[in-house]
Design goal:
Strand content: 15-25%
Shape: globular
Helix content: 25-40%
Radius of gyration: 20 Å
Number of helices: 7
Structural class: alpha+beta
Number of strands: 5
Distance between the termini: 59 Å
Order of helices and strands: HHHEHHEEEEHH
Amino acid sequence: MADQHQTKKSRLAESSYNSPYSRAGAPTSHPNGDPYASLRTAALSSLEAMGYDPKTMVERGVLWAEDQDPFGHVMHSQFMHFLGTCFHRVMESYDEYLSEKEYDNMIHGKGVLPVIKKYELDIKRQVKYPDCLIAAYRQDQILPDRSNGTSSLFSLKQQAIVAEVKGYAAYIHASTGRPADIRTLGDGWQRLFEGLTQKAQDAQRRKETWDNEHGKTKGKSESSKM
């Protein structure tokens, strides 16, 4: 007969993602157990296979008070907050290509910077507490004056994408508000353009493989370019 203490799920275990013992560097294993460990492994494997960038992913546990509406569902405004954190990490990844001065000018609005121009949020499933979400970004396309991508929220409990944003950021001159061709702005921006071009190509290959393996066909919204 199974030990009831081993099989019963505790409330603390269900929200274990809020504990520092679920992070690397904890001196001991999680005192409440971590039911999300295997779910996290599966989620990350799926997201990478779908073409999402592992370097810029963000994990965010759902909070009981701050994230839910009166009906016990995570609010759509929180979805955008979670995804915005991921997009900021995408911008932080630019320092792989830009010089320190180019990057600082971008962050402080003194040079050229990416500005969200258009996006569409598709809420695919409801999310309830407790749950843990991974926000992930996939580079879909890079043009001289804009960057197209898909940002998604993946639920560890549901093992599925629960919200998805498709859109693009325009590169503009902060002083004029006019579009910028980043290929003409210097060595760092040229490296960024080439690097994101490679990321988009790699992401597309992985996504196509995933779609073929899972019987997905390219829909009208997938094939259209913004």
